[in-house]
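call fold(seq) -> tokens
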Amino acid sequence: MAYSVAVPVFNGFDATRRCLDSLARHTPAGCRIILVDDASTDARIPGLLRDFAARRESTLVLANETNLGFVGAVNRALAAGGRDDVIVLNSDTEVGAGWVEGLVRCRESDPGIAIACPLSNRATILSIPGVESLYRRPDASVDVDALAATVRAASLRSYVRLPTAVGFCMLVTRELLDRAGSLDEAYGRGYGEENDLSMRALDLGFEIACADDVFVYHAGEASFGELPATRERRAANHNRLTRRWPAYDPGVAAWAKRNPLRSTLERVNAFAERERLPGRVRVLQVLHRFETQGGIEEHTREIMRRLRDEAVFTVVVPEHAKGAWGDMRIERPAPHLRIVHVNLEMSEPGIRVIGHRANVADASIEASFRALMAGEPQVVHIQSLVGWNTVGLARVAKESGTPVVVTAHDLSLLCADYNMMTGPRDLPCGRDRARGNDEGCIACLR
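ret:
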């Protein structure tokens, strides 16, 4: 099967130049590149595209007389692709070595796969959070080639199935286009069109997969950001999508909270930390919260301050998420520090004690923590299990063979009411720990 790369272009000169430079370095010579100038108002764009085509064989430049929007420009490229499978690529991206080969390898791993998408720094469900900053150069640019090499090295080529494609970069088979049609131009300038195509693909029995050994850098909004009413268009297109496909939002939300890609993302993070911060001990700190001023938080911050040049830390805390988001929210405020907020919306219902979830075991939270362990920390340090809705995290960590340190800052490991005070005057209850067959304990905790 032959493959073409379709790149719609509207302004964004600097981003487009970087995209084309990366394509010239990393796209196989036999792969045709179709560039569509969607009536750019930047007079430099036509010359940029012509110069690229003059330097590289198997390049076709199409120029729209009027602006068709992203969807119309892509459809023109799809039509020009003949019988090729087509990789649709935003002009604000940069690719790394082996990017086409990796997408094709994913696609050819199963005849049921009709769309394949790579990992990225900015691609909703395909984003690798907390890693990009480790590859930032002094001039603030990102070493895309090095980051792409890390993703390749970390990959197990598991090709996790996805609930939708992410349109910044997607390989689409000609078979799917023949049966489902091209992008729906009802979505106008863009947003939602790749999700609509994804739902048509799933409706026909095809699958969408993540090429987890491919990384494509995505700057984001380099062209659309220049146009007015972007937010309104996004909202209108989302309404169109969900009216047409009512199962779309629930399906993506359920996938994001389960997140079958989490183990893959943790492996990438681990490889990145070992490469960019070599020789440091990788420590996973488990707390009930981190940004506040309590004693446990201050103790943990002091450990990290003293060891900032010797270790790299992941701090994981439970979070009462407001609104719909995935299994975890991740940020990296410093190279040696990553903060992971685990979404407690996933936790199982049960008892609460002094406002905290207080089940003894929670299979959903433990499964999420197990996925974190795929990053292979060298030490797990449990500082507090308050609010986690399980006391099983140490057991989960030990299952992977990782040494576990537990610091007892209070009595929470003995009783969910961690002060072990009772009665109207808050006196010590006199017990050494809470017991499930002690009516006094049950009444107190209730």
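The chain is about 35% helix and 20% strand.
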